[in-house]
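User: structure tokens for this one?
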Amino acid sequence: MRSFDLVTLEKKKISLNERRISRFLLFCEDLIKVPLFGCQHCGECVLSSTAFVCSQRCPKRLRNGPCGGTGDKGHCEVFPERKCVWFVIYKRAKWLHITSTLYQIKKIHNWNLEESSAWLNVFRKRIDSPIWPFSKKQKAIKEIIQNDTAG
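Assistant:
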């Protein structure tokens, strides 16, 4: 991976018509993604690679794994009464047998996409398309992990 693949360099403003379409799609996403996955409207959905748990529910908004403050039993450092989002993601990924998707590094969050439709952003190629558990990318990630553990 090249280092500039970790950030979004595009700074184009979203047009008024596109904003309207985005609001409609965001409404549709609200009907589906908020109740099912706890969507936080980041505009860069990575649900398919986080076992369908929104990683943005983390108070620190960490996209690539837990912070160092997760408690012994998986409790959040900021809100000790809650489980760490990444603890929940790992447990669900293990249950779904898709832990290899957790090894894919996600790009740094593009705050310009906040409160926009992730579906529209995928169609407009502002963000990468989802990784499905049985995709070629996921199989390649799994092979890398197996090679690392074998070597």
